[in-house]
Design brief:
The chain is an alpha/beta fold and 313 residues long. The protein folds into two domains: 133 residues, Udp-n-acetylmuramoylalanyl-d-glutamate--2,6- Diaminopimelate Ligase, Chain: A, domain 1, CATH 3.40.1390.20; 163 residues, Rossmann fold (3-Layer(aba) Sandwich), CATH 3.40.50.300. The protein contains nine helices and 19 strands. A hairpin with a 2-residue loop joins strand 18 and strand 19. The chain starts with a strand and ends with a helix.
Length: 313
């Protein structure tokens, strides 16, 4: 499991424009964060701490701060002490609010980092989530091309030189969008979402044999590329002589595993003169029909089986 210390948040303060200030200078900044989503206390301030996750950043906004202000000091001390005993990673106070004295005092006593930001809660959560996603979500890199075809995220795979980039270029020329060429960075957002993007140095670029590197954004405009896309379908390009003819009707859906998530996969045989771009467009439409519960091949097979069972030719 990936993790980062609280100190990393302060190191990335300016990069993500978090506007953070540490209010407990002697706190332990080596406390570990493992979750890429923050947690707002809610009922924890009322004493219900069963679902308090100590390895998540704890956000204290206007609501929590205002609630503490309505309580006697002894009750505030009790609540703050109860929260700090959970050995959580850190508190972050939003909206430029001064930390409640009880929370600040207990944080110091428990050597717990307490930070404050001038950002409103919603703004800060968006920014800190980007940082946490960049550092904590499970990732892998896959050799292939990621495209947005009719809104379907299609990952083209296959051996080097089989024609993935040329096929992708044809699809871009038809109005579809390139996400990444050659090396796709994939992130896993539980439970089953995979999001792909290009590695920063090669973003918007594609290698075409004979031409070299081309910049898709410069050549086709900003509508020809997108920064990231959810993966929906894997298409493996395979030399024609390696294709298994027994699965021509594709009645049994195969899957491909990436970061523990199973995606549907189609295997397309490649031969000279075959229009792969058109077939991939049809594959995207086929995937949308399957998501709607329609399986054209299966429907035909069911019809034929019913006819045979009735004795009708």
């Amino acid at each position: 499991m990936k993790s980062i210390p609280v100190s990393r948040i302060l190191e990335e303060n300016s990069t993500y424009d978090l506007q953070l200030a540490l209010r407990t200078p002697n706190a332990d900044l080596n406390r570990i964060i493992t979750e890429y989503r923050v947690q707002k206390h809610g009922l924890a301030f009322a004493g219900f701490t069963r679902y308090l996750d100590k390895e998540r950043i704890q956000i204290v906004g206007k609501t929590e701060s205002a609630y503490l202000e309505t309580l006697p000091l002894d009750d505030c001390d009790r609540i703050a002490k109860s929260l700090c005993r959970h050995d959580i990673a850190c508190f972050i106070i939003t909206s430029g609010i001064e930390p409640h004295p009880s929370l600040l005092r207990q944080s110091v006593l428990h050597n717990l980092p307490l930070l404050a930001t001038r950002h409103k809660t919603s703004t800060f959560i968006n920014r800190i989530n980007r940082l946490l996603e960049d550092h904590l979500t499970p990732t892998t890199s896959v050799h292939g091309v990621l495209l947005d075809v009719y809104g379907v995220g299609i990952l083209l795979t296959g051996t080097s030189g089989i024609g993935k980039s040329e096929c992708a270029l044809d699809l871009v020329y038809r109005g579809h969008r390139l996400v990444a060429d050659d090396l796709v960075l994939i992130r896993h957002f539980p439970p089953t979402t995979l999001v792909g993007q290009a590695h920063e140095p090669i973003r918007d670029h594609m290698e075409v044999r004979g031409l070299g590197l081309i910049n898709i954004r410069d050549m086709f405009g900003v509508t020809a590329v997108r920064e990231q896309k959810r993966l929906d379908l894997v298409i493996q390009l395979l030399p024609w002589d390696q294709y298994d003819e027994r699965n021509r009707l594709n009645l049994e859906q195969k899957t491909h595993r990436i970061l523990g998530v199973y995606l549907p996969i189609l295997i397309l045989p490649v031969s000279p003169g075959r229009n792969l771009a058109t077939i991939i467009e049809i594959a995207a439409r086929w995937h949308m029909l399957v998501k709607m519960g329609k399986t054209p091949g299966g429907e035909l097979l069911s019809y034929l089986v019913a006819k045979l069972e009735k004795g009708n030719p």
